[in-house]
Design goal:
The complex is a heterodimer of chains A (about 475) and B (about 240). Chain A has helices at about 10-15, 40-45, 55-60, 70-85, 105-110, 115-125, 140-150, 160-170, 180-190, 195-200, 200-210, 210-220, 255-270, 305-315, 355-365; strands at about 1-5, 25-30, 30-40, 65, 90-95, 100, 130-135, 235-245, 275-285, 290-300, 325-330, 335, 370-375, 385, 410-415, 425, 430-435, 440-450, 455-460, 470-475. Chain A has about 475 residues and is an alpha+beta fold. The longest helix of chain A has 18 residues, at about 255-270. Chain B is of the alpha/beta class. Chain B is about 25% helix and about 20% strand. Chain B has helices at about 10-15, 35-40, 60-70, 85-90, 105-120, 135-145, 200-205, 230-235, and strands spanning about 50-55, 75-80, 85, 100, 125-130, 150-155, 170-175, 180-185, 195-200. Classes of the chains: A alpha+beta (about 475), B alpha/beta (about 240).
């Protein structure tokens, strides 16, 4: 069972306009410029497809007309094809603005035809598309029904070839989108409907009007096979959006990114994967583009979360010039980890990676860290910075945990000289003598001490050798 | 003249009625110090919310007070005054890699970080060092901590004592000769009091867990007796003197 989706407003969408603006797209047919796509609001003002550009301008001078961009339409359609992969593994695109999904195998997964259709429609609406659905046992049949705008009701869904034949019987000939010359020839003998063509003798029809057209009719009814290349998602995601105005305010850019991120999420759903890095580019009229990178701790496909991170980044960004165009690129994809809930409720705190991402977006990754031990006797080398763990995990206690020598909770980055009279020693010495081999030797006696303010210090006496008296330093605090 | 008849429930719903012990705001997370547990309502830290610790200077033993609480929970330390030392964390029974340390540059960033950390709900305990905290920010932190069931310890200098605070629990700490002088400045459902908490050697404290405080009498008692139920009446009897 094939579901075809015809997108009458794709030319407008490809130019970055929503479906609810009074706009129209023009194209050159021969030497004349004619309207190619008209938004519903422009239609209400009297604009029609095929109308000459001059008449449209005379009729409604305030409605903006844009020249058609076929490559952008193609990209948008291909992108939508990738989105369709989340509903079916078989997606075919047919230019200019129709895609077809094989949904017979997906009905059970999505809870029936009605639920699936509703889901597809709401998804398309979210992406800013307006689609006419068509449901038929053949690809061409579904496409024909979608293009002609036959309402697709569930109780009367066309599921068999006989039903399909009945449904297309009265459709006007133009819906087949055959060349004008062929259409004229058919009209000349009084044929105006699809059904009438179907009833003509096969051999005679092929001879007079071309075997290709007869084959198309057979493919519509399912009497001839209709092999199509299946849509393959592009290996990397790359989208950009032209702004309709230049701006220096970063908050104005967010709605544009919201749209691109929604597309990106749809792409990820289609490929069933997530991402950990997004490259953002802000293009300026003159200077070199500003590059930004969003880094994530864990593969994700949550556009709202990306937008929050981006907002943090953009608010702190100094722009050299106004922004003209924004672009999003992703070249590296990761599989999404399956969510698992812990058996024990105390470990059911949510994962901390979103927090880490939010913090590092504003503060920078260097300000967020954890510490770990390192095997060295010298106190200043017995620790190292590391990345904080995102999920709790059991780890064996190392031997360092069982050693009884006192260690302070706070370590000073640079030991601070102190007069021995200002402190009161509270423990016996712990001698640490190490590191003579790598040029950073350490010969010290460490003590626990207390100063007059009640602070508990970790102090050491350094032996420099020679005749110099030993010096005292504070190296940390027992918090 | 007849007084309007109010049911007890109606009266209790009035915002100007203060009820000493609210069972939802006090918790059972032991502090790890039996003496402190006895002086806190609920015999432990509140389950969630803001807890303020006022200290004259870092290093007087405030972390020894908190270490038992910090074991076995996810935690974030925001703007610590010095670098946390991994070997010491390990010896205190914490896993260093699980302690998330954030070192913001400015006070504004610190407050923002605290709020984000508390709101994320991924941490059981958040420790923050922040001196200049406006009342509005404190209030926001307190509400956020309650809503995500996070315990937020805010460690602030002593001069902040003058500033009013929405924290349900405020402690003043200072160094004593052989321990930590602890004054409870404010405790929702408890009473202001002061005592010296003797230091326990961290090595032995990790080996022998704190005494079970269930057997010790609680100092806190409810100020409003809701109904003459036997349990409440029993709780309202004069508290036994601590030896």
């Amino acid at each position: 069972m094939w579901l075809a989706l015809h997108l009458p407003l794709l030319p407008l969408h490809a130019l970055g306009h929503g479906p609810h603006e009074p706009r129209a797209v023009t194209t050159a047919i021969g030497s004349a410029h004619r309207l190619y796509c008209v938004s519903p609001e422009a239609y209400a003002r009297g604009l029609r497809i095929g109308m000459a550009t001059r008449s449209a301008q005379a009729l409604a001078p305030d409605i903006p007309l844009h020249p058609r961009q076929e490559s952008a339409e193609h990209t948008a359609l291909s992108h939508l094809g990738t989105w369709g992969l989340r509903f079916s593994s078989q997606v075919t695109l047919s230019a200019p603005a129709t895609l077809a999904l094989e949904i017979g195998g997906s009905l059970r997964l999505f809870g029936g035809l009605a639920a699936l259709l509703q889901r597809i429609q709401s998804d398309l609406q979210h992406l800013g598309h307006v689609a006419q659905p068509g449901l038929a046992p053949t690809i061409r049949g579904a496409e024909l029904l979608a293009r002609s705008g036959v309402p697709c009701h569930i109780p009367s869904a066309i599921l068999s070839r006989e039903e399909l034949r009945r449904a297309i019987d009265l459709l006007p000939l133009e819906q087949l989108q055959w060349p004008a010359a062929t259409e004229q020839k058919l009209r000349a003998v009084g044929l105006t409907r699809v059904g009438e063509c179907l009833r003509l003798p096969r051999a005679g029809f092929s001879k007079r009007y071309g075997a290709a057209h007869r084959l198309q009719l057979d493919q519509i009814t399912g009497e001839a096979p209709d092999p199509r290349p299946l849509h393959q998602p592009p290996p990397l995601f790359q989208r950009e959006a032209e702004l309709f105005f230049e701006t220096e305010r970063t908050d104005v850019l967010l709605p544009g990114f919201e749209r691109l991120f929604a597309d990106l999420a749809a792409y990820l759903y289609g490929r069933d994967c997530g991402l950990t890095r997004i490259h953002i580019t802000l293009h300026h009229p003159r200077c070199a583009p500003t590059q930004q990178r969003l880094g994530l701790q864990k593969p994700s496909r949550d556009p709202a979360h990306w937008l929050r991170l981006l907002e943090e980044k953009l608010t702190r960004l100094e722009l050299p010039e106004p922004v003209r165009k924004i672009a999003v690129q992703v070249d590296c994809f990761d599989s999404l980890p399956a969510n698992q809930t812990s058996l024990f409720p105390e470990h059911n705190r949510s994962d901390r990676s979103p927090l880490l991402e939010t913090l590092s977006a504003r503060l920078g990754p260097s300000r967020i860290y954890a510490v770990d031990t390192q095997d060295d006797h010298r106190p200043e080398y017995a620790w190292q910075r590391c990345d904080p763990e995102t999920a709790p995990q059991a780890r064996p206690r190392t031997t360092a945990a069982t050693s009884s020598a006192p260690r302070p909770l706070w370590l000073k980055d640079a030991p601070e000289p102190i007069a021995p009279t200002a402190i009161q020693l509270q423990s016996t010495a712990e001698r640490i003598e190490s590191g003579w081999w790598d040029g950073r030797p350490c010969r010290r006696d460490y003590y626990r001490a207390r100063n007059s303010k009640g602070q508990q210090l970790w102090v050491y006496r350094e032996f420099l050798g020679g005749a110099e008296p030993p010096r005292w330093f504070v190296h940390g605090y027992f918090g | 003249m007849s007084a309007p008849a109010h049911s007890l429930q109606e009266i209790l719903h009035r915002p100007d009625i203060w009820r000493g012990l609210r069972s939802d705001s006090i918790g059972n997370r032991r502090t790890g110090h039996a003496l402190l547990d006895r002086h806190l309502p609920g015999r432990g830290w509140p389950t969630a919310g803001l807890i303020e610790l006022l200290i004259p200077r870092p290093g007087i033993g405030e972390m020894q007070l908190l270490i038992p609480t910090l074991r076995d929970c996810t935690q974030c330390w925001v703007a610590p005054p010095y670098r946390p030392y991994a070997p010491a964390l390990l010896r205190a029974g914490l896993s260093p890699r699980r302690v998330l340390i954030v070192q913001p540059e400015t006070t504004a960033d610190t407050l923002w970080t605290l709020e984000q950390t508390v709101r994320a709900g991924s941490e059981d305990t958040v420790l923050g060092w922040c001196a200049q905290t406006p009342m509005a920010a404190l209030r926001r932190l307190q509400l956020a901590a309650e809503s995500t069931q996070t315990r937020l310890f805010l460690i602030r200098p002593v001069h902040c004592q003058q500033q009013p605070s929405p924290a349900p629990l405020r402690l003043y700490l200072d160094a004593a000769d052989d321990g930590l002088y602890l004054r409870i400045l404010k405790s929702r459902g408890g009473r202001p009091t002061a005592f010296v908490l003797p230091f326990v050697d961290p090595a032995t404290a990790a080996a022998h867990p704190a005494v079970d405080t269930d057997t010790l009498p609680s100092v806190a008692h409810p100020h409003v007796v809701v109904s003459p139920a036997p349990a409440a009446a029993a709780a309202a009897r004069p508290r036994p003197r601590a030896a």
